[in-house]
Amino acid sequence: MLQEYKQQKDELLAKYDKLLELDIFPVESYLQNAKPITKEDVLQKKKQLQEEQFLVSITGQIKAGKSTLINALIFRDEILPADPTPHTAKITILKYADKPSIDVIFYNKAEWGNIKTIPEFEQFLKGDIEKAIQNGVLPNSVIFESSKTIKDAIENLKEYVSAEGKYTPYVKQVAVYYPSDILKEVSIVDTPGTEDPNPIRARVTKEWIDKTHANIYAIYAGQAFNDKDFEFLDKYLLHVPKEQKITVLNKIDTLTDEASLKSYIQNNILDDENMKLREIAQKDSLTYVSSLGALIDRMLLDKKELDDNLEEYADKLEEKGFLEDKKHNFSTLEKMIEQKLMSNKGAKIIHTHTTYIGSLFERKEEYFKEKIDIENSHIKDMDISKEEIAGKIQTIKEIKEKFESGLKLVEQNIERLNREKSDDILLSINHIYNNEKNKTLSLVDGYNKSDFKSNTQTDILWRVKDSLGYSFGEIRHMIEGLENDVKENISNHLLKLKQDINMINSSNGIDLSFMGNFEQIANIGYMEERLKSVIDDELSKDRLIAIYETHKSWLWTTQDDVGKMKNEVKNAVQTTFENIKSTLKNYIADGLQSILNSKKSELEGSVKPVLIDKDMELRNLQSNFNEKEEMINKKKELVVEYEIKLEEIQSLKIQVEG
After folding, report:
1. Structural domains in the chain (count)
2. Is 647 helix (H, G, I), strand (E, B) or coil?
3. Residues 187, 192, 197, 202: what is their CA dihedral angle, to the nearest 10 degrees?
4. Consecutive H or E run containing 187
5. 84-88, 115-119, 255-259: which has the minimum mean pLDDT?
6. Of the candidates 76, 56, 77, 148, which has an alpha carbon nearest to the alpha carbon of residue 109?
7. How far apart are CA 328 and CA 94, in angstroms?
8. How far is the C-alpha of 41 from the C-alpha of 207, rounded, in Å?
């Protein structure tokens, strides 16, 4: 058996050597609060294996009853004082010796200077230092460049670790040597509470916990498993094999309903799958005790004297039955310690180190697997985001395309309307006034000699003006029809444009209501007055009289003279009608073109700013898309890098573990 143990130990030492040669440090954890494992941590573990140390740490929050638990377990007496505050608590290492004694280690100058800078110094430590000075212990009597160590009798322990101890403020840690059967098998480290504000002591505490092979975690039963407990267990005790962890629900004598606590622990801790994965507590390694009841019970059995404080507690606990083992349940804890931590020490040492080496690789593997999962999750999220951006880009492109094509279509339609409607109305005007002109010319042809004198001055002028009045009814109707056609045509195209855009994006931000606001293409009254003015200019009464006066000397002589007068009057009539047509055509054509151009300009003025905004939005989205693409590519590169590292770790694991 001894030869087998030595062989296993040598194999583990060789694995440590291989491990230390690898480039895997620090060994991170995917758990947020977990402390990375360094090469120095592994060197310490190797040293422990060489020296065959088996360390059990006792941890827990302040006032969880750790000191009382140790007093009942190791000393069966009130040797360790309770740590009333985290400011006076000390790191205490318990080791076996035939005779009781203590080694006291003080802070060195550098550590002491550091302590004086912590926020709690003025509030908590300064008063303790002043008390120590009043008791004759000056800092320079115990604080030196290198830490001072002194030996003393165990009876004087309280002078170094209790709240009233005259050396307490200057002490970093204490080693207690005691002839306990338990200490023959294991060494015990009693740590301050998990919320230690002293950075020097907190660092040393972590160092000792990192060396731990097994752990007893004490919890105040009245506040079982709060956030600080979970944080500490995750952060510092992941490396301890679950088979070598014991959880103690202490101070059950303070509970009013022990059954409710046990039900809560069963349902929310022991049976919870998440808690099982985190190895928070195991059913066969969790127990409920009253350490104070056990301590008093043992002191009475050993016929040791109780102080007044313990006497008072003894009376109260006896009434509740907690001075009997079946109530304080301490023998259950002792059996757990013997079975899980003490029996077959060699096998446990081998198991502890084997588990530790394996856990390093598992931790590293889990770290990279978690990294891969996180990055893949990010890639998936960014792919979705990228697809959303691509969809927005496509939507904006479609909106732009609809706007541009719709605008072009409306502009083309305006041009078509200008051509078609202008041509239609102008042809109609031409037809109407040609008819009226021919009727007037026929009237002039029908005049005889006598008619000229009586009719030329009035008849022709009124005939032309009557033609103008007659034709204006038809012209007005045509212009109103033209206006309605223009409004309806453009409105239909704009409605179709808006419907197309709304199908893509209901919030396009463009107001097209102005397109329904049409002024009249022609001011009929003004145009009528303008045309009358043309008639008055071209076919005035004075001009007709002048023609008559020019030809009257020959009026009664020959038919040719009458013909000449007729031709001159007809020329004047024809010129007048041509000028009327030209003026009217130009007026209507110019008016139509002006209004259509105005609508075209208004449409462009409304749409173009939106298209500029869409262009800017498109550029921003494209930039965002490109950034996402670049980030995704970087994430993919990271995944490949992590996968390579994961394969390397798995390969190294095979090399080390064989």
Report:
1. 2
2. helix
3. 10
4. strand 187-190
5. 84-88
6. 148
7. 24
8. 8
Please write the tens of the pLDDT for every residue from 20-62: 888 888 888 766 667 788 898 889 888 888 877 788 999 988 8
Contact between 94 and 70 (Cβ < 8 Å): yes
Strands 214-220 and 245-250: parallel
Say how far apart CA 420 and CA 415 lie, in whole Å: 9
**DSSP 3-state of 35:** coil
C-alpha to C-alpha distance for 300 and 471, rounded to whole angstroms = 135
Let me know whether 470 and 345 are in one domain. no
**Structure token digits, residue 10:** 């040598």
CA triplet 62, 68, 70: central angle to 5 degrees? Answer: 105
Q: How many angstroms separate the CA atoms of 474 and 599, rounded?
A: 26
Q: How many CB atoms lie within 10 A of CB 195?
A: 11
Last residue of a domain, one of 376, 404, 428: 376
Tokens encoding 297: 């019970």
Chain-wide mean pLDDT for the chain? Answer: 80
* Buried b or exposed e, range 196-234, using 16+ CB within 10 angstroms: bbbebbbebbeebbbbbbbbbbbbbbeebbeeebeebbb
Please compute, for residue 421, the number of CA atoms within 13 A of its CA located in the half-sphere on the CB side.
25
Greatest C-alpha distance within the chain: 176
In this structure, which amino acid lies at residue 253? D
Cα–Cα nearest to 326, from 297, 306, 299, 305 = 297
Quote the tokens at residue 646: 């994961």
pLDDT for position 439: 79
Instruction: Provide mean pLDDT across the span 434-441.
Output: 79
DSSP lists the bridge partners of residue 102 as 152, 176
Distance, CA of 131 to CA of 91 (rounded, Å): 22
Domain boundary among 376, 405, 437: 376
Which residue, 76, 72, 109, 70, is CA-closest to 90?
Answer: 70
Q: Give the three-class secondary structure for 420.
A: helix
C-alpha of 507 from chain center: 27
Tokens 């931790």 correspond to: 363
Per-residue model confidence as pLDDT tens digits over 329-374: 999 999 998 888 777 777 888 888 888 888 888 888 888 898 898 9
Lowest-confidence region among 53-62, 109-118, 286-295, 338-347? 338-347
Contact 348, 9 (CB under 8 A): no
Residues 524-579: tens digit of each pLDDT: 566 666 666 766 666 665 666 666 666 555 444 456 667 777 787 778 777 877 77
Residue 18 located in a structural domain: no
Answer yes or no: do 404 and 433 share one domain.
yes
**Residue 305 falls within a domain, yes or no?**
yes
Question: Residue 554's pLDDT is what?
Answer: 46
Q: Which of 522, 200, 289 is nearest to 298 (CA)?
A: 289
Q: Which amino acid is located at 442 in the chain?
A: S
Q: Which CATH number belongs to the domain containing residue 481 in this structure?
A: 1.20.120
Q: Which domain holds residue 583?
A: 390-651
In single-letter form, the type of residue at position 545 comes to I
Q: Are residues 270 and 413 in the same domain?
A: no
Residues 540 and 410 in one domain: yes
Q: Is residue 1 very low, low, confident or very high in pLDDT (cuts 50, 70, 90)?
A: very low
Dihedral Cα 286, 292, 296, 298, nearest 10 deg: 20
* Tens of pLDDT, residues 184-228: 888 899 887 656 666 656 666 777 777 788 899 999 999 998 888
Q: Which helix (H) or strand (E) holds 219?
A: strand 214-220
- Cα→Cα distances 205→55, 212, 226, 241, 261, Å: 13, 11, 21, 19, 30
End-to-end CA distance of the chain: 23
d(CA 250, CA 287): 9
Pull the structure tokens for residue 125: 């430590």
